Each structure stands twice: as structure tokens, then as C-alpha cells.
């Protein structure tokens, strides 16, 4: 199909060969699972189990709260041994509310688990509700609740569902393997989502460094004339949602808007697979495929893990480290987050665990900016990163915002190409965080001011009322006095 | 922190192999063939001057870094001081005395680079500032061009004579010759039409050596190291484009503008205006277009800005060569456009994704 040009981008060594040939394996049951209650964007789920309680696989252990949230289910059968806090799968390593489950080894599904014979007979609302109840979130890494996205049809005029199989981050091969091995299930999930969204056109976009996945999806989609397979050039960040939509449709999503504004919804193939499992079999999201790779990993693999499995268990399964890694990451090398420890659990959004050597990371001390302009050529958003960095450095954050700081998607293409090895993304993250903090402080200030004004007005009103009451009483007393005087004189 | 030595920082955790050092090294590599050919052409005095100029630049850079309390080795090995010295040496008369190279280094490194804050901070191209400052201060020495005296040929100075030339300031008689641009300019001021003086320069009426257009291109002619051998400079420039160190925009715009405007005016009045090809192949046009104007630090950062910048240099070079008192205008043109770089950058930012060129979000329109 015809593709459109997108701006910028870089060509990092994709390093996919490390894990791309490894079929998806299932990790043996770990001794303990630490299941965080917040594995999604939105409000954390609230625990629905007590310590000591026995649960079956797929039982609800935490309820989603509010409009944007997702429930959490037991990844296997066993006993709840703790409802407390545990270090998060996050660079900070802070503890978050977590349910700890001791597997009983039976891996027995709950009796209530039941699929639907024909999902296409359901109302679109029903499908969204089931997807929501299964705790499915965007498995590409963004972890936005999938049901909320399926309900976008109510607000927007949608016409196309794009499946983002670009997997443009180097090293990661989990979507590649899933599309190769579960092509029919993925296509089924995609069709269910398209039905729920009410769209007729489906585009499955896969980068050219995954020819096997392209072939498998083409075969699986051959029955369905409304599905197109797009062969994307291999370029980072092709998988950036808005850029992908531009490459496929030629349309640019307006700044600060959603792709739904131009009628397109984007989902990940792993999300489609989860939707298939949830609708056909009633399985909630309790496991996902993860790529374990990097130069420091003994045996790079693609592993299906239960949510809550510790990173260490996963590393052990892959033979541990060959050398001490310089960087342990969750996600890909371009946008992944450093993992503070191997104790942390795997969550819905973890698509990769990478242990990179010093050569792979290639960190070098920063030099001054020589204004070579490589960052401008690389930026997919049309920013001038060197100017943003200069403004940030000088503390001129408002200036940086005017130049488009908040339009930066943090893809790291600029920092990747920078010959001076400037930590550009770090500058921008600092500036964005600082601007958000200033925004909150300003809001707090306005709110405080409003409350003070209200209070002053209230006190004033009370005093006014008191004065009036006093005046009234005085008038009354005067009137009485006059009356008494009058009666006395008469 | 458990058993993994991870540093808490933002990605990306992958990096291209490009570095500042690699960039500078490739530029030096691209300059090497032309430089070697020209050092051969002008012999020992030019080799001495070349060494003195680069050496002074590196030493002065080191001193400035020490005074500024900045990391010495990392900055000194980035290659930028060597490149500045190299480019400066290529714009000097090859038999100029040693102090010209040294004073040039002071202008380039101390006054126009380090005084502005070092690498990446200078507004003007250091080598061009130095060349122009020297030209204005020492016009006689700076225009004492010589005809080629290739190494190991008859008439070439030996080492002793060369030491006397470079370090003793003893310029032998009868070796100087006008550059093509200079000759044409002088003749025009005497009332001799350009069309005629060009032919005369070619036939060599009063010169010890007479280049034709072919010689202008290959470089067997009087001039600075960078002024001669347009072909080798062009090859070096194309190599830089191939290696993606520079893009084609600035060189193409400089050369294209100069050629078009030169040709146009030559067609109008060939007695007053030199042809476009002559402009392109003489003077330091190629050196300026590929190596000087493309200096990252002092040229605009966006492609659109670079196009404006290149056109400006081409235009100004032609104007200065044609109407001003100096035969060669490239250095002045580059400096003038350097001063416009910040404002060009301001007005040539790329359009932001999802926004109009004014910065407003694009209007929402659904196509079914």
C-alpha cells in the first residue's frame, strides 16, 4: 500500500537478531508473585482480597477505580500472603501497593471463566465492558486502558483501526514473535476490536525488519478484505502513534490532540491478542510476552511471564548475565527506563528486559554543542533540540515551551545522533517536570487565593449580618423605648 | 541498588558512533589531499608556515583552556583547534613570514573563539576573522602571492633559503605573481576590460607563470594553499557530503549563486564583469563553499536556513569581488553572513508536527 513520508528519525542497529529466532516460551511458575495494583495509566486499583485468602487463576484481586483505571486479576491459583507495598517496576524503585501471591502449583482457572461463542453477536458496548473487566491495557508500553479507547467511537467519527506492529525499538521482538506464532488469534482480536470501534478499515503496520511477521499476518488476514498489511521502512520512531498514522494515511494529528481527531485508533498486536483471549475464552490479562535480551544476557529469549514475576526469576531463566551489565532496562534502549533492582515485578506494560554492556550503551562524556544540526534532522516533531537545550540550561523554560518543548515526544532520536553526547532527553524531561510543577504551584496559588477571597467574603457577610441584626435589635429597642415613653407620657 | 550497576538517568541507552572528534577528523582528512598537493607546490616555506600556524593554534587553545579552568585534554583532542589552524594556514600567502601564522592564531583562537566561550560559542568563523584581520592590518604581506615552485624542482628554495623566507622574512625577488582575481581587478582599475585581461592573464604577458582555466581548476597557479587546486578541494567536499558530515545545501547555494549571478552580469557586459565559471574556479571559492561556510558553529542549523545562508554568501562574494576594493570577497562574505546566522535561525525553524507554520494546532478534519 502507499505510504507517506514522515519527518526525521534515526537508524539505530536494531539488534533484533539476538532474540528474534527464539520461539515464545512459558516461564515456570515462580515461588512468589508480587502484583502491583497500578499497572496502567489512571487511578490505581483497590484491593479486593484479604491476606490468607485462596484465589483461583483469573480471580479478581483488585477493582479498577474511576473512569480511567483497570482491574487486576490473580495470575495463577494460590494463596494471598500479603496485601502491602513492594518496590515498583519503575526507575524510582519506590514502593507501591502490591498484592503478594504464593502459587499453589495447580495453575487452576476460576470456574467463572467463560468465553463468548460469537463476539460479533455482542453489542460494541458489551465488548468494551468485557475488555475493561479483563484488565486489558495498551500492551505496547503506554498501558492506557484498552476499553476506554474502544469507547472512543462515542465521541469521535472513527474510520480506521491501525495495528502498531512497528516494534521500532531495537532488541524487542515480543510483538514480532506473537504475530508470527499467534497470527490467527491476533487477527481475531483485531477484528473484534474493529467491530467494537465500528470501523471498516484495518491497517496492520509492520516494519520491514520483520518479514516473517509480515508474511504470517498476510496469510492470516487473507480471508478478510478490509485488512491491509503495511510494510513500513525500518526507522525509529516509526512506532510513535501519531507518526505511524501519518506514514499510513498522510494525515497529521493536530498538536495536543488524539489520532481519534482524524478518525484513527491505534492498538498494539499484543493488546489484540489479549482481547481475543478475553472474548473467546474469558481469560483476563494475567500474562504477557517479554523479550529478555542485550549483550549481557546469557540466552536472549522471548518469554511468556505471569504478571508479578520478579525480574530476577526471568533473568535466571535466561541463564543470568555473561558480564555485569552497564545498564539494566525495562523496555527498549531508546525510550526504556532504567530498572533500579532485579527484585521488581513484571507488569502489564513491560515489553522487554534488557541488560546492556558498556559497548552497547556507548556512554561518553558530553562535549559542548557544536550546532551541527543533526538533532534537527533527527527530530520527528520538527523541533530544534539544540535551542530547547540551550533555553533549558539557561533556566528559560517559558522560552523552551514557546519553541515547542511540550510537543516533544521524548523519543530520544536527538540524543541518539548528538556527536557531543549531550543528554538532551534528560534536559527536556527536567524542563517538562519543572513546568508541570510550576503549573501545579500556580494552580495551588490561584486556588488558595480563591479560598481566601471566599473566606473574607464569608466573614464579611457574617459581620454584615451581625451588624444588621444589631441595628434591627437597636431599632426594635428604640421603638419599644419610644412606645414605653409614649405610653408613659399618655 | 542490588547487583546491577545502573545509573539513574534518561534514555536513550544507545548511541550513534558519531563524535565531535570523528567529525573534526573527517574534515581534516578531506582537506589532506589538497593540502599535500599545495604544500608540494609551494615547497618548504609553506610547510613551515603551515606547521607554525597549526602549532600556535593548539598551544594558544591549551593556554586558554588552562586559564579558563576547563578540561584540557578532552577539549584539546577534539581537533577543533587543529582544524581552525589548518583552515587559516590554507588562506595565507604560502611564503608569508612565521609571525603572520602566529598572529593569525591569536586572532582566531583567542579573540574569536575562546573569548566567546570556546568550542561552539563563537559567532564568527575564527579562521576568517583571523584572515580578514591580517589582511586589513598587513595588506602588503598578505597579498604577496607567489607562483608555484614545486618541491625538488629547479628554482624551488632549499631548506636554508626556506628558513630565511619564513623565519627571516627574506622574500626573494621576482617570485611574486598576481592571483587571477587580483590581476583582473588591477587591470580593470587601469581601464583594461575584464575580457581582455582574462586572456592576457591566460597568456601571461607580464607574469613569470601563466595559468589557464585548466590550471585554475587543478591548482597550478599563484594563490593561497586553499585557493589553488579547486578540484582536490571539491573532491574533499564531496567526500564530506558522502560521509554526511555536511549537507549539499550550503556549497551548492554558494557555488550556484556565484555562477548564476556571475554569468548573468558577464552576459550583460563582459568588459566589466568576469564570467561565472571564472568566479567559481578562482579565489578560495571551493574552500569557502565546502569547508568555511559549512562550519557548523557559525552557520544556520536548519536546512532552510542553510539555503538562505549559502545564497547570501554567493551574492556577497560576487558583490565584494566586483565592486569593493579587495579582489577576494569570500572571507568578508562569510563573516557578514555569520553575523546574520542567529536571525536566520530565528526565522527558519522547521514547522512543528501537528501545527501550522505559525505554531497553532492544525484544524481537525476527519476524512472517511
Structure in words:
The complex is a heterodimer of chains A (490) and B (368). Chain A folds into three domains: 16-288, Rossmann fold (3-Layer(aba) Sandwich), CATH 3.40.50; 290-361, Ubiquitin-like (UB roll) (Roll), CATH 3.10.20.600; 364-476, Fumarate Reductase Iron-sulfur Protein, Chain B, domain 2 (Orthogonal Bundle), CATH 1.10.1060. Helices cover 35% and strands 17% of the residues of chain A. Chain A has helices spanning 124-133, 146-150, 174-181, 183-197, 211-221, 241-249, 269-280, 311-317, 358-361, 374-378, 385-393, 397-402, 413-417, 424-489; strands at residues 24-26, 33-36, 46-47, 54-55, 60-63, 72-73, 78-87, 95-103, 160-165, 201-207, 227-232, 264-267, 287-293, 301-306, 327-330, 337-338, 352-356. Chain A has a six-stranded mixed beta sheet. A four-stranded antiparallel beta sheet of chain A has the order 2-8-7-4, with no helix packed on it. A four-stranded parallel beta sheet of chain A has the order 11-10-9-12, sandwiched between helices. Chain A starts with 23 loop residues before the first strand and ends with a helix. The mean pLDDT of chain A is 93. Chain B has one domain (20-345). Helices cover 58% and strands 0% of the residues of chain B. Mean pLDDT of chain B is 85; it is low at 1-7 and 204-211. At the A-B interface, strand 15, strand 16, strand 17, helix 10 and helix 13 of A face helix 1 of B.
